[in-house]
Every structure is written in C-alpha cells, then in structure tokens.
C-alpha cells in the first residue's frame, strides 16, 4: 500500500444541516464549560459547607477538573477510533453521570473533588469524540470555520452558566447544580444518539493494538506542526484557566461587585464568542495561520497593557479600564481557540480520535500546573493573572513560530503505512 499524505484524507458528507450540526457539537463540547462555570458562584458556599481550609483549596474544584479531563482524553481518544464516535460519547456521558451523582451527595471536600475528577474523565468522551466527528467531516480552513461557529454557540454557555448556577442557589442549595448537569447530559446524549449517525464506519475502525498505538502516538508526538500548536494551546489555555478559577475572587473579592459577578463574567465571555463569529467569517478568506499570528500579537499587546496598568495601580486597576482591556485581550484569545486546535488536528485525519486525545492531554496537562501556579498568587491583586497572560502569550508565540505554517508543511511528515492501513 502506498503512503498517504494526511492532508488528502477524504471526509464524510455531513448528514445534518450545518445549523443543527453546529448546535449539537456545541452542546457536546459545552458540557465541559457548563461543568466548570456554573460552579463558580458556588465555590465559597461549597468551601464553607464542606470545611475547606483556605480559598486556594476551593480553586481545586476547577483545576482538578482539568486533570480528570487530561486522563479521560487519553482513554476516549483510542476508544473512539476503535469502537466508534457514538460509543465514546454515550459511554462518556454515563461516567459523567456517575461522577455528578458523587458530587451531588459528597459529605466532604475530598469526596467532592473525587467526584469532579470522575465527572471530568467522563465528559472527555463527548469532548474528544465530538472533535473527531468534526474532523471526520471537515478539514483545514473548513474545519476552522466550523469550529469557530461551534465556539460562537459554545461561548453562550460560559456567558450564562454563572448566572444559571446563581439562580439555582437562589431557589435551592448548591447541590442541585449537579442535578441540572444530569438532566442536560441526558438530553444532549439523547439528541446525539437519535440524530447524529456514526461518522467512523466499522470498515474504517482499527482493532486495538499496542503496536499501532505506539506507531500512531510516535507519529503524533514527533510531528512538529501538531506539537507546536498543541504547546501553544496549552500556554494560552493555562492563562485562561487561571482566570476561570480566580474570576470570582477577582470580581467579588478584589473589586467587590457582589451579585453583578455573572454580568461581568458574561461580558468577557461574549468577547470570546464574538471573536469566534468573526473568525468564522474571515478564516476561509485569510487562513487560520494568518489570523492566529494577528491574534497572538493582540494577546501579547493586551496582556502587556494589563501588566503596566496593574503595576501602575498596585495590582488593582480601575474596574472599567480593567474590563475594557481584558475584553479586547479575550477577543484575540477567542480567535486563537478554534484556529490553534484546527491546525494541530490538520495532519491527523486517519487518527483523529487518538490525535484529539493526545492534543487534549498535553494541552491540559500543561495548562493545569500553569493555572494552579498563577492562581496560588492571586489574593488581593490582579497582577499575577495579567503577568501570567503575558508570559504565556509570549511562550505560545514562540511555539507557533517554531511550528510554522501547517499548509506549507503538508509533505514534510507523512503518516507511516502501519498507522493508516
């Protein structure tokens, strides 16, 4: 069998309309954001009720979620390639439900954190398999366009999730946030199972083989384009997760916005969603590499401005100025999210599931320590967060420069025959 170039991979014709497909994939991937952001207004109350020793311990409710996801992605990636996308999504939702029930009835912080890790492990199934479903049907700039539209819908979740969690706590206790997760997970799973056909037919699946896993993993891990954009994702995501984990402490503890916290969070989330919409409109014309370079320059410039402001105002810039500059910086972050992932996945059509898993694992495993490190210094100043953004955006820029334009490297690394046969 002759060698195949990964960029000539045929894609399946989408079975659903673009609008329904984008909505469904956005729901599958947004379970991650919902599971994180809906918890933010409840962190202090959870810590108080479960006897948390300090505020940093409650940050683990967010940070450890990404650890569970990192290992879950390594499991569900190969599973989606060997047993199909639908199996990975449905089985992942079952594990997600188990972890959610554990969190719902957790008597201690330790049990809650265990439930969060299990919850995250399970939700990795829908997240990874959904990326593989998208890659099965779209590639290159077309995939970046679809990912941008998915991000545009997806970002509605972090916009409304804190308000959603806060409304639940107005009428019920915080544990019923997990009850809502159960209902939403079941509804999303039913929609997917009833409407989305399998995109990896049986004749294209590979039985599990350690040799094949080794060869495929070696190809992915030694591919300059894949690794460069994966590292860039990890740096940007690490800075962003530090904001997620500390957002309530920043807006409530430092700026004392009180009940207005969900509003500020939604405004900044809207910036990312609007960026995804703009990216979807421009990516087919300008290309994802060009847009990513512009966005990285924007993040570096924005985080530099924020760092100067933080130093000038002893760690607490005026709230309107802080939100305005952060809004602009997050716009460029939104441009990066869809494009970096699409460029990392570009060479991996034949191993989309495993590729998405390894990319997700490495980017998550890189981002979590970064987020925990930055978060440990956020007490009464925004300086650690904004300087963390600056350092991470510079590191991401270096990684993208090292990887280069993926469209100009199509023939540089071909997939081994034993991986694709």
TrEMBL record:
Residues 21-411 form the Major facilitator superfamily (MFS) profile domain. InterPro entries: Efflux_drug-R_Bcr/CmlA (IPR004812), MFS (IPR011701), MFS_dom (IPR020846), MFS_trans_sf (IPR036259). It is a multi-pass membrane protein. It is found in: Cell inner membrane; Cell membrane. The keyword Nucleotide-binding does not apply. PROSITE patterns: MFS (PS50850). Keywords: Cell inner membrane, Cell membrane, Membrane, Transmembrane, Transmembrane helix, Transport. It comes from the Bacteria. SUPFAM superfamilies: MFS general substrate transporter. Its main location: membrane. The chain crosses the membrane at residues 21-43, 58-76, 88-107, 113-134, 146-171, 177-194, 226-251, 263-282, 294-313, 319-340, 352-379, 385-404. Belongs to the major facilitator superfamily. Bcr/CmlA family. This is Bcr/CflA family efflux transporter.
């Amino acid at each position: 069998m002759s060698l195949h170039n990964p960029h000539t991979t045929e894609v399946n014709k989408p079975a659903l309309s673009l609008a329904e497909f984008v909505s469904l994939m956005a729901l599958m991937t947004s379970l991650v954001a919902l599971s994180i952001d809906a918890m933010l207004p409840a962190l202090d109350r959870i810590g108080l009720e479960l006897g948390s020793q300090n505020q940093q311990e409650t940050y683990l409710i967010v940070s450890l979620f990404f650890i569970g996801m990192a290992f879950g992605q390594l499991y569900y990636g190969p599973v989606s390639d060997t047993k199909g996308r639908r199996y990975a999504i449905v089985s992942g939702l079952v594990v997600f439900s188990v972890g959610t029930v554990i969190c719902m009835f957790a008597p201690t912080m330790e049990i809650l954190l265990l439930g969060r890790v299990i919850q995250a492990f399970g939700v990795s199934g829908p997240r990874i398999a959904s990326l593989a479903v998208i890659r099965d049907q779209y590639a290159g700039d077309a995939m970046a366009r679809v990912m941008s539209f998915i991000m545009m819908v997806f970002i509605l979740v972090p916009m409304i999730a804190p308000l959603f969690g806060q409304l639940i706590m107005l009428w019920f206790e915080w544990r019923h946030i997990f009850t809502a997760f159960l209902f939403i997970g079941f509804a999303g799973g039913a929609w997917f199972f009833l409407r989305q056909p399998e995109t990896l037919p049986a004749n294209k699946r590979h039985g599990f083989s350690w040799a094949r896993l080794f060869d495929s993993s070696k190809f992915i891990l030694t591919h300059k384009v894949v690794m460069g954009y994966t590292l860039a994702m990890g740096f940007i995501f690490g800075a962003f997760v530090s904001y997620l984990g500390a957002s309530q402490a920043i807006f409530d503890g430092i700026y004392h916005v009180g009940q207005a916290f969900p509003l500020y969070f939604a405004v900044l989330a809207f910036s990312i969603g609007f960026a995804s919409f703009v990216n979807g409109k421009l990516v087919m014309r300008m290309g994802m590499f060009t847009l990513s370079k512009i966005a990285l320059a924007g993040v570096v410039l924005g985080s530099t401005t924020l760092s100067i402001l933080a130093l000038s105002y002893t760690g607490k810039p005026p709230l309107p100025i802080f939100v305005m500059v952060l809004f602009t910086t997050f716009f460029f972050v939104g441009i990066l999210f869809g494009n970096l992932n699409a460029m990392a996945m570009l060479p991996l059509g034949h191993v989309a599931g495993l590729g998405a898993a390894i990319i997700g694992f490495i980017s998550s495993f890189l981002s979590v320590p970064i987020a925990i490190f930055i978060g440990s210094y956020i007490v009464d100043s925004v300086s650690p967060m904004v300087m963390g953004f600056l350092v991470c955006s510079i590191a991401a820029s270096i990684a993208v420069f090292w990887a280069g334009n993926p469209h100009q490297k199509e023939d540089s690394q071909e997939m081994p025959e034993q991986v694709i046969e």
